[in-house]
Amino acid sequence: MDIGILKESAHQERRVAITPSVISKIRKLGYNIFVEKELGLDANFSDSEYVEAGAIISDISSIWSCDVILKINKPNEDEAAKLSKNQTLISFFSPATHSVLLKKCAKDNINILSMDSVPRISRAQKMDALSSMANVAGSRAVIEAAHIFGRFFGGQITAAGKIPPAKVLIIGAGVAGLSAIGTASSLGAIVRAFDTRPEVKEQVESLGAQFLTVSLNEDGSSTDGYAKVMSKEFIDAEMSLFKEQCKDVDIIITTALIPGKEAPKLITKEMIDLMKPGSVIVDLASQQGGNCELCIRDEISNYNGIKIIGYTDLPSRLASQSSELYANNLYHILDELTPNNDGIIDINMEDDVIRGMTVVKNGIITYPPPKIQVSLTHKVEEKKPVDLNPVIEKKDSLIPALIAISVLFLVGAFAPESFMNHFTVFVLACFVGYMVIWNVTASLHTPLMSVTNAVSSIIIIGALTQISSVDTLSLILSGFAVFIASINIFGGFAVTKRILGMFKK
Amino acid sequence: MNLEIFNMEVVRALYVVSTVLFILTLGGLSNPETSRRGNQYGIFAMLIAITATILGPQVSGNYSIMIIVILLGGSLGLLLSKRVKMTEMPELVAILHSLVGLAAVLVGLVNFINPINEYVDVEKTIHSIEIYLGIFIGMVTFSGSIVAFGKLSGKVSGNPLVLPGKHYLNLIMVLAIIFYGYQFVSAETIDLSVYPLAIMLTISFLFGIHLVASIGGADMPVVVSMLNSYSGWAASVTGFMLSNDLLIVVGALVGSSGAILSYIMCRAMNRSFISVIAGGFGSDSSVASVKTEDQGEVQAIDIDEFKSMITASNKIAIIPGYGMAVAQAQFVVNQMIDILKNKNIEVIFVIHPVAGRMPGHMNVLLAEAKIPYDIVYEMDEVNDGFKNIDLSIVIGANDIVNPSALEDPNSPIAGMPVIECWRGSHTVVLKRGMSTGYAGVENPLFFKGNTRMLFGDAKESLLKTL
User: Fold this and answer.
1) Which of A125, A226, B203, B238 is 20 to 30 Å from A438 at the Cα level?
2) Residues in chain B with pLDDT < 70?
3) pTM of this prediction?
4) Gap between the Cα atoms of A253 and A165, Å rounded
């Protein structure tokens, strides 16, 4: 089958759906790839790189007739009109809010796989473009903030005086939030993060940020991988926490989204009034109304010296990286869709991930998909810590000691003196052995065994004392014993020497 | 000709010197630095013991035979030690154990045929028990080691032999040995005691075979160390029989050494010694029925992605299993760490106690590939520190990195200590396919979000990354 990729038509879009690095992998699945001239120019991928990787540069109209079209943004009306019967389109689509387009595609019998409908299960992570884009957006949000912010992020003590580190508050520790935390703390800022889901605390802390909570005990986790709407008490407590933080922090990055709903208003005008002039707010939710009351979509607004960034094109501002990630997501989806590596797409509706993404198939609207319960982290949390229950370590008991003492007593009561002498030596030797062997380092256990092999051939002494006997049978037997013990002595010591010689620093 | 230069007192004194040197030999192994001198102590100790014996009053003739036999055996031993490959060390150790066992049997028999001293009453009983016990332990060590050798070298199937009613079989054999032991001790004349001794020889020969044959392949490290222990006890009992303290002490040292190694191996697999002896992994029918829930899907990567993951790391932990040694991939790994060192990437090795086929086997295989021993760590030294490790590379290992040992109480390997590499940032598993390990258990590590699979032959994959 042929796959076609065109330049994105959306305003100021620099990203591209496929990058040269995945082309060879997609070709291995059995597809031919046709790309528009200067496809990746804005994302710094040249035509020659595409051609080198195995793509064919073609004219726009023949690309539109390919069997599969890969895009990033949902098609506009013009583009939708160019799609033809039995074609498959894979792109962001937002089927919930674009029912007219959805119906048109169904009528024209075009198969649509929507990138934003990939279910949030762990198996589908590698195909989840929303997450990869959120990752880029979170990181870029910090860079945008740092760009506008008038000071350093990291603290310094210089000859000219002390520079305090910037304080960054990140609201929502999802993919974007965690990425922002990582970027901000590696720039040297003091980072705090808030999230309604207590299970993300560990991730937040592992990235070097402080996790803020409210004292109310309410869990914001839900089974679809997003946070849920919280109770009024919780929101009140949360708001007063933000108010306190606003007085202190220099940068606020908000990433709170609840699927299918307008973004919650978390930073009010009243709070912004408390912030220091020069502070920066980046609102990553501005596409869905914004977490910040004063945010203006796609603009930087200035409110009493406090800058509020409402960009919605953050991934596109890091076009090479976003394209690379998006292209990889697409590759993994194509990999799923091509189980036989024969270049033929199989939209298998039995597969949870493909089922979830497919919004139109064979002229029928298949959105919304049946619900699958997913959040894996939640399931893991419920597992009780396992009792390791080591079998070996038994309880200390007096019984073995008592048995040992009575055995010794019995031996002493009946055995003659000569035996007791040897027995004493034996028991003491066991203890010496015990002490010495525990000191042997584990890495030398093999040479320990080979040297004890040689050492235990001390039994040769026994054979030697018998070899002088006159009767032939004894001579043969003990001679043979000396022979095999010698093999052991020489072999054991020599191989130990050989092994130990290999241990070098 | 009589070369009796030393009297018995001098011989005894030299035996004490020899004993001390033997203890120092084992003590030297506490550190690779001192271990080579330790081995030399051992050689000295043996030399002193043998010379003292030959030149003492216990030996009064047949010197030429003695020297010829020692030289013959010695050259054969040296030849073996030069020829053996490091992967074959367990086989060599097993075959050497069998020789100690056989020597103990022979010494016991000669002592029985041709007693040095006459004993009466209790002393006679004790002496008879010593002979009987010495021959028994020697025989079990001998036949058991031969089977172990066969299993390790692949000449005998590694699967545990399951005879119907095998526990009863063992019990009957032990009871028979005790019964004939009683007959042997209470026999009035030597002629009367030959018969029970012969039967015992046969039974203990079969007993040794059955003991080792019924143990599964995964438990071989325990078996090898167990036989190591037996060979020591055999020497010790022979010492009792001959009233020779040197043999008693040295035998006890070796015996406790093997016992401790067996204990360490058992602990590393969270198995009790009894359950190892009773039968290995795989003979337990409940194992196969454990069906894990759908774990999702593994994420495969190719060589280029693997390369970029390596170069993006600061600290890499390599977790080798026996599969790495089989593929002889450790030499490639060594080339790789040289390259990484130049790029300022720190590489360490993490070794599980049961990774090889005998205790410490992995360390030897790595040392053979000239991998410096100071970057090779034990599991316990690293397990708490995986947070600092950017990339773990698992080569030819499976069960020793299986998180279900800690997370799933129903798992057949539950409670076994494992290398917790999934606590690091990323893990790449080099693997031929999706088969399970020795224990036949699914490995959830492969399905974790931070794990990537690199399918194919480990050695070839590594060669391509160079």
Assistant:
1) B238
2) 1, 277-296, 435-440
3) 0.67
4) 17
